[in-house]
């Protein structure tokens, strides 16, 4: 995978004191190859690595960072810059604002239109109107209506009218009823097709949209770039939406589209539910392409779910070397709340590869939870009192082997020792989550 490639590329630089022409060349070659594998066009990959090389050779390696770390930073900064630097925003000045959603069939236009409506209402606090302008498949109109019902956003549709007329009428309807944003879901074809292009061009001319968002399936890689170019040549769209980022995505499409078309990627969509739409953050995507773990998302996810008060309390207990099995039990419950443990851990840099060979299912935790649940509160508060006969009782009560109980208690003791040691060294951060 791309991340494995890059990991080994960066490894070559580890332990070397200076960035020189020689040690940079092979690393950049690996990076270039990795980018091409991730569907970045080879010309773009080449230009990219040339730019990184220039900066790397000019850079002085500070004592605090290794050449490897410096290269990671250079590569990441360069990727971020290439993808637009800052997160892009929607322009919603018109009254009403019209957003035209275009793209191939199956790219995710209808799903995205629903998500966008939800986003506009929930996050931007404006009232949206969805417009079903895909008149060729009756199922398409129905699909949008179902989505509209789910998110409680009205859907404008009209039988027997051409798409252009529907769009025009919808804008009038929005004016009359005070909808602030009109989202027009258009028809797509399986491939670029003149009739489709003409139709969206006509809609554009009729309703003068403030935003034209081109929807691309991130899984389609280099094809997405060619399609984007064809649409842009005809429509001059204002932004790109990358869908299906929850799949085995090739982040390379983001880079290639941005580089080729020079239009911002405005949203990424990762799932079929209405709340799985995200603003596109170039720095996060750079991290993702580099496979260094989606740390920011992890932190946000953790912050959302993690009870800050409890975290403080736990930290205090750890500082005073009072962390016991009652606390551990609470921690486990917190981790559970955050979702699938393996998915969470996979977001930590460098973890992805190690997790592959690890059988880390939730059953492992069920066993531990059963063991802890079979202890008395005093035993949890003071694990030292858990002697042989108590261990047998706990094993029986939890339905686990006595060896498993022993092993768990030993691991917990090791963990406590480690916390003590960290306390002595003066730095603790129990979940290894960066705080702001
Ligand atoms: P359209 O033809 O462009 O309107 O595409 P649809 O919105 O109908 O989506 C096509 C298929 O892709 C549907 O089965 C959607 O549920 C699915 N889909 C759309 N967006 C996403 C996404 O972000 N993630 C996943 N996993 N599936 C998606
Ligand atoms: Mg559709």
TrEMBL record:
It is found in: Cytoplasm. One of its GO terms (cellular component) is signal recognition particle. It comes from the Bacteria. Its EC number is 3.6.5.4. It comes from Thermoflavifilum thermophilum. GTP binds at residues 103-110, 185-189, 243-246. Keywords: Cytoplasm, GTP-binding, Hydrolase, Nucleotide-binding, Ribonucleoprotein, RNA-binding, Signal recognition particle. This is Signal recognition particle protein. Residues 264-277 form the SRP54-type proteins GTP-binding domain. Belongs to the GTP-binding SRP family. SRP54 subfamily. GO terms for molecular function: 7S RNA binding; GTP binding; GTPase activity.
């Amino acid at each position: 995978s791309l991340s494995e490639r890059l990991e080994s590329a960066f490894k070559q630089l580890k332990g070397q004191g200076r960035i020189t022409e020689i040690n940079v060349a092979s690393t950049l070659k690996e990076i270039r190859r990795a980018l091409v594998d991730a569907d970045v066009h080879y010309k773009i990959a080449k230009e990219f690595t040339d730019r990184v090389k220039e900066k790397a050779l000019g850079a002085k390696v500070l004592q605090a960072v290794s050449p490897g770390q410096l290269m990671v930073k250079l590569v990441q900064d360069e990727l971020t810059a290439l993808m637009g630097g800052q997160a892009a925003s929607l322009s919603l000045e018109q009254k009403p604002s019209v957003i035209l959603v275009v793209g191939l069939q199956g790219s995710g236009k209808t799903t995205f239109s629903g998500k966008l409506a939800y986003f506009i209402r929930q996050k931007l606090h404006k009232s949206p109107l969805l417009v079903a302008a895909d008149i060729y498949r009756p199922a398409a109109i129905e699909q949008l209506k179902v989505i509209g019902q789910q998110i409680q956003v009205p859907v404008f549709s009209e039988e027997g009218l051409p798409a252009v007329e529907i769009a025009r009428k919808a804008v009038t309807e929005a004016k009359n009823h005070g909808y602030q944003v009109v989202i027009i879901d258009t028809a797509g074809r399986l491939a670029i097709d003149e009739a489709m292009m003409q139709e969206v061009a006509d809609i554009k001319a009729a309703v003068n949209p403030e935003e034209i968002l081109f929807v691309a399936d991130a899984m389609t890689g280099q094809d997405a770039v060619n399609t984007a170019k064809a649409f842009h040549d005809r429509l001059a769209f204002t932004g790109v939406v990358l869908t299906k980022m929850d799949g085995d995505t090739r982040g390379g499409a983001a880079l290639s589209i941005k580089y080729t078309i020079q239009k911002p990627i405005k949203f990424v969509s990762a799932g079929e539910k209405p709340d799985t739409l995200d603003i596109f953050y170039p720095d996060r995507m750079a991290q993702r392409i580099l496979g260094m773990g989606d740390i920011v998302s992890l932190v946000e996810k953790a912050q959302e779910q993690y009870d800050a008060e409890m975290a403080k309390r736990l930290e205090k207990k750890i500082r005073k070397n009072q962390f016991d099995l009652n606390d551990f039990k609470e921690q486990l419950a917190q981790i559970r709340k955050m979702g699938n443990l393996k998915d969470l851990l996979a977001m930590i840099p460098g973890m992805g590869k190690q997790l592959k060979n690890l059988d880390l299912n939730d059953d492992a935790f069920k066993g531990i939870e059963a063991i802890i649940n079979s202890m008395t509160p005093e035993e949890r508060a003071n694990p030292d009192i858990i002697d042989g006969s108590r261990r047998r009782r706990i094993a029986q009560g939890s339905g686990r082997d006595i060896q498993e109980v022993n092993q768990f208690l030993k691991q917990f003791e090791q963990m406590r020792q480690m916390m003590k040691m960290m306390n002595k060294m003066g730095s603790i951060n129990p979940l290894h989550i960066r705080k702001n």
